[in-house]
Amino acid sequence: GGEPIWARGARGLLVGLIVHLQAKHKTEWGFAHLAELASHVLTNYKMLVEIVKKNHPPAKAYLMGADSKTTQSFLAELSGALTHVIELGVADYAALKQYGKWSVFNTRLRAGEHFRAFPISNWTELDVWLYIARENIALPGLYYRHAREVVERGGLLVPVTPLTPPRDGEVPRGMDVRFRTVGDMSCTCPVPSTASCAADVIVETLSATLSERGATRMDDRSSQAAMERRKKEGYF
Q1: What is the DSSP letter of 167?
Q2: How many whole angstroms separate alpha carbon 81 and alpha carbon 130?
């Protein structure tokens, strides 16, 4: 409800672009494709209108003419949201062209050793959500906007549950939230959100200033060394 109209419009336009890529390339698209499309539509208003009108008609309302100051404001917001995607797309294209998909695969294997494959160990939260959008992966509703009772505690929104009841003086209130990660109920918190699909989450992720763990984990907030402690205890 309180989301700025410019952000809402940019999100609608981005949904149109992603749906267009899904229809055109099925599962065979990534950063490079989205970056290329973004660079085209940000300089070709007619192309943007055609894509949005076909793939996400409600967002056509944000396009009021190439010379409209309102339209230019929506496009400026979209351009800002896509800046990092375009940078990632350029890097993605260059890496694939120069090295191929297996450039970082270490094939040295000594006696007594074995391979452990974790192909997404270096993925960011944005990488994950772009993949989810590209592959049309269905997710539990917890990852998208839903109403939930929470209390504010230490800069986090703590869900009200039998395991995490309100403390003395805390007043529960209903909010629209989503979980950026789903883990132990006793220490995992949601974040405020209006995102109802993967494209919406991508827009929110592009503007996030806290990491997924920093924004959602009570145990990470409890100590600067929380992550290192868990490593020593064998969690990783």
Answers
A1: P
A2: 14
